[in-house]
Protein: 7-carboxy-7-deazaguanine synthase
Organism: Virgibacillus natechei
Amino acid sequence: MKLPVLEIFGPTIQGEGMVIGRKTMFVRTAGCDYSCSWCDSKFTWDGSEKDAIQMMEPEEIRDALLEKGGDHFGHVTLSGGNPGLLRQIDELVDLLHDHQIKVALETQGSRWQDWFTKIDDLTLSPKPPSSGMKTNFDTLDFIIESLQQEQQGDFSLKVVIFDQDDLHYATNLHLRYPAVTLYLQVGNDEIETDNNENLVGHLLDKYERLIDQVMESSVLKDVRVLPQLHTYLWGNKRGV
Ligand SMILES: C[S@@+](CC[C@H](N)C(=O)[O-])C[C@H]1O[C@@H](n2cnc3c(N)ncnc32)[C@H](O)[C@@H]1O
Ligand SMILES: Nc1nc2[nH]cc(C(=O)O)c2c(=O)[nH]1
Ligand code: SF4
Ligand SMILES: [Mg+2]
């Protein structure tokens, strides 16, 4: 069963969340059920690159990964768009596992798929108010309960923070799911710029301010505060 693919790239480092720094390849699928105001991957869902979408069989994706990454990788991250929309990713996960390749997933937690239980490093990234999206907590509760009962790998929550309301949202999320490791990630509000020097200075400032705020919280004790590491290295460049 074919999958809509927009990018296959790497090896690079995972720049975000629970396996930050890990050497990985990326497969970016097309299509999203959200439209976050600050999405840094709008091209996956805004129609601007619909002609570039390739419909690929899992074997073709594996071959493309091997062609790009050679024998230099053992980890693949599925991102998008929302890969959680695609029931047929199941086959790709099995195929990669057959090759002893670990599989990570980036999804916002708006949809469940049975293959989530096979993912080695699963990041749920529910969206705070600044995104303009509304979390369906019935769905998120179901996903987290299912993962807690059945998942073979690790999973975590990751919230991108732009403002006070977002931090408040993340605080409530931590109270709702205290047993799930929570990552807070600096929001990039300069997704169009190609001035990397200014961008890095700006994002470092924001990282420091986010750290200060989290230090003052009596609820956010058990959290990890991270930059979006790849943007500090390569700015808004794609495919890295
Ligand atoms: C592009 S999304 C694709 C996966 C999935 N749709 C999701 O949102 O989790 C990958 C990650 O990038 C984060 N992200 C998107 N735009 C961002 C921005 N402007 N600043 C920081 N993180 C961002 C998302 O929150 C998500 O954690
Ligand atoms: N290096 C790197 N790390 C990432 N972590 C999450 C990414 C994404 O866009 O999903 C991403 C990405 O695009 N590049
Ligand atoms: S859910 Fe992810 S891919 Fe979809 S719009 Fe939001 S950040 Fe972008
Ligand atoms: Mg990204």
Q: What stands out?
A: The two ends are 27 Å apart (CA to CA). Strands lie at 3-13, 23-29, 54-56, 75-79, 102-107, 121-124, 154-161, 182-186, 223-226. Helices lie at 58-69, 89-98, 137-150, 164-176, 196-215, 229-234. The chain has a mean pLDDT of 98.
